[in-house]
Amino acid sequence: MEKFEVYLKKNAGYLLIIAFLVAYILTKFALFAVLCALSIVGLFVYETYRGVEEGGWKKELEEIVVAVLAGVILWYGAGFLLHTSAPLDSIVSCSMLPRVDRGDMVVLSGSEVSAPTAEVNSSEWEEIKERMNTNFTCGPCTQHGAYNFSICRVGCGGSCLTAIDGKPVFSDSNDSLFSYNYELCKLKGDKGDILNDVCVKSINIKGKKYYENFSNDVVVYEPLENSVFVGSTIHRALVKVSVDGKLYYLIKGDNNEVLDVQAPGKGVQSGEGTCIFSAESRVNKPVPQENIKGKVIFKAPYLGYLKLFLWGYVGTPQGCDTVIET
């Protein structure tokens, strides 16, 4: 019993961090995330103070410098071995549910990304990029002829998808160069409720269809300037596009209805009960090879929460209460 008490006293700070982390995982209550972050900071301050008391400031600073150098060497060493500038990352959102969860810590590799490749020339590519942006029109939900669409539903307060670029939801496209293919999918809520939703399941490029494929690699990329997304984004590569030898990626989150290039940058109210989303202010563009930080080769559940809490990501982001069923 005495040994157990000594163990508790010696490791109380670490046990407190683990307790708050487990409490957050079970409840998703933001207060536990804040307490976990404060416990990490408090433990660092306490260990530093105790080190100063035992060996003085000089020795403690030397140990801190050694620890920082060891971390830097480990980071860049791992990056060198894995051929990436960012060997580790933490998942912030729920856009990759259910295969990759918020709070997962992922290990990245800069090796070749596994995804099908479409070959186009530069003039075809310029035409394709002009057709990528999408307007979604929502209107009042009816029993027939309209479908739930969460991107629009969030912005319009319960309305349903009625048209895509002015055409009926499931209308066939005559565009042989590039088009999106929509299908009915199921959106399951955290309380078990299920809504009919609309999802992109494949795209056409030069007459060939490229389907959403969960065996393709998950990648982490840095969005281009003036994008809808900000900061490192982790989604799955749908297709690589080779433009006269230069690679670009079309990417989609497993739990998103549409591709990243379709993400709405601006919502415009248009009459009572309707809305139109457009990407006039900010636009996600196809991701060039140089913006790919790496592909996911390993994930460790929950460990990423420690980084998220320290950086202030304590609230549950939008989209974590629903999962697209496959």
Provide an overview of this structure.
- The chain is α+β, with helices and mostly antiparallel strands.
- It has two domains: 81 residues, no CATH class; 208 residues, no CATH class.
- Helices cover 31% and strands 29% of the residues.
- It contains six helices and 17 strands.
- Strands 1, 2, 3, 10, 11, 12, 15 and 16 form an eight-stranded mixed β-sheet that branches. A five-stranded antiparallel β-sheet has the order 6-5-4-14-13.
- Strand 8 and strand 9 form a beta hairpin.
- Helix 3 packs across helix 6.
- The longest helix is centred in the N-terminal third of the chain and has 53 residues.
- The mean pLDDT is 88.
Task: State the gist of this model.
The chain has six helices and 17 strands.
Query: Total number of β-strand segments?
Result: 17
Indicate the radius of gyration in whole angstroms.
24 Å
- The figure for the number of domains is 2
Low-confidence stretches: none
Report the order of strands and helices.
HHHEEEHEHEEEEEEEEEEEEHE
Shape: globular
Task: Tell me, rounded to a whole number, the average pLDDT.
Answer: 88
Major sheet attributes: 8 strands, mixed
How much of the sequence lies in strands comes to 25-35%
Distance between the amino and carboxyl termini? 52 Å
Tally of alpha and pi helices:
6
Oligomeric nature of the chains = single chain
